[in-house]
Structure formats: structure tokens, C-alpha cells
Amino acid sequence: MASKTESFRTHHSDVRGLAARIEGLLDTAAIRADAGPAATVVRELFGKFGVHLAIEDATLYPRMIAHQDLHLRQAAERFQREMGDLSARFDEYRRRWPGPNAISCDPAGFVKETREMLSSLLRRIAREDRELYDLYDRAS
Fold it and tell me: Among candidates 73, 17, 26, which has minimal Cα distance to 45?
């Protein structure tokens, strides 16, 4: 039987795959020569993560916050609060690096900020998988 979080875990796996592809493109000299490939994969990540957040916010988190298990409710509320900061940082990153032109103006800055953003994002989804999703699956 599939867990209640299986599709969300699949989204996380997709995000990890995109992050790995982006990491493989984070070479300042290569980006200086052609920022297009990095911009394309980052745009894919924006789309995938944006959809994931929207579905999570509209369905999964409300279910967890309304759940009878107090520990799950408290964990979901804490994760949701923490996500607000990550979402704001992700949105700022998207505004700062909207495409190849912006990226090619400061390849070193793009590489640095992209690594920081990916690190935060990957830590977050790992915690959701390991802590929150496991808790929800056990409580359901």
C-alpha cells in the first residue's frame, strides 16, 4: 500500500535530480561563456518546486494541521512557519536571476547564490522526508 506522502516524496526526488543537474552546470567560466544551460535547468527547478509548494500548501499541510495527532499538528505548523522564510528566499533568488542575461552579468555571484539556495532547499526536503512525512505516514 502506498504511503500518503508518496507523491510528495516523488516530487522531492525530482527536485533532487534537478539540483544535481544544476550543480553540474555551476562552473563560472562555462556560465560566463553561455549562461543558457544553467538558466534553463534553474527555470525547470522553479517550475517543479513552485508546483510542489502549491500542492503541499493546498492539500498536505492543511491535512496535517487538522490531524488528531498533536505531535503531527505541531510539527506541521513548525515546518510551515519555517517554509515561509525559505519561500521568501527562493522568490528573491528567482527575481535576482530571472534568466541568462542576469546570470551572465555576475556568473560568480550566480554560482555562489545558487549553491546556497540549493543547499537550503535540499536540507529542507530531506527534513520533510525524514521527519515530517514519516511522522504523517505513521499517524495516518
Answer: 17
| CA angle (88 as vertex; 83, 94 as ends), nearest 5 | 125
Residue position matching grid coordinates 544535481? 20
Nearest to 30 by CA among 18, 41, 45: 41
pTM for this structure? Answer: 0.89
Please name each of the domains of the chain with its CATH number: 6-139 (1.20.120)
d(CA 41, CA 49): 12
Q: Which residue, 2, 121, 8, is CA-closest to 64?
A: 8
Q: What is the mean pLDDT of residues 127-137?
A: 95
Dump pLDDT digits (tens) for 24-59: 999 999 999 999 999 999 999 989 988 888 899 899
Q: CA-to-CA distance for 37 and 35, rounded, in angstroms?
A: 6
Give yes or no for a contact between 64 and 5, defined as CB atoms under 8 angstroms apart. Answer: no
